[in-house]
Amino acid sequence: MARYGTRAVLAGGLLALGLPALVLAVSDSIAPILAACVVRGAGFAVLCVAGGALTVSLIPARRRGEGLALIGLVSGIPSVAALPLGVWLTGRLGFPPVFAAGGLAALAGLASLPWLPASPRWPCWSSPRRPSPGAGWPAVVATGAARPRCSHRACSPPRPGC
Fold it and tell me: What share of the chain is helix, strand, coil (3-state, %, to 5)?
């Protein structure tokens, strides 16, 4: 997200989640179905990680627990309700309309991107210590390379104690 920006990463995730669902609506061959599922899985993974990172960057630190609980409810309740609704609609309407509706719902999320920050404010971390190549995880732990150190370069805002 730091390289491409919040909006671009979320747009890529939404496109990867929504467009292949439209392919599912028109295809009954196994190869396109598997390809669509792989691309949709990658889009879902991007959205989970980028959405979580964006959420944490937007919630003030002292209210982060409360905010994350609210996000859990906002995402969990529709997930619990949509699964049986999708099964019921599939039985009544068939697979193509349900796949199309799911793809269009994901693509509708693109409309919210202009209101998101261009890039969140991250604390910047860098680690100049690197273990020797091929040293394995014990060397990473022993040298402290896994423990980041703060760098004020391009921090917005700098973390306390850096």
Answer: 70, 0, 30
How many whole angstroms separate alpha carbon 24 and alpha carbon 47?
20
pTM more than 0.85: no
Q: Residue 147 phi/psi, 5° resolution?
A: -90, 115
Could you tell me if 81 and 152 lie in one domain? no
Residues 94 and 142 in one domain: no
Number of domains making up the chain: 2
Regions of the chain with pLDDT less than 70: 120-162
CB 35 within 8 A of CB 99: no
72 and 107 fall within a common domain = yes
For residue 1, is it within any domain?
no
| Residue 125 dihedral angles phi and psi, to the nearest 5° | -125, 140
Boundaries of domain holding 47: 6-115
What is the predicted pLDDT for the residue at 149? Answer: 46
pLDDT in tens, 109-148: 999 999 988 775 554 444 444 545 555 545 444 444 444 4
Contacts of 51 (CB under 8 A, 6+ apart): 10
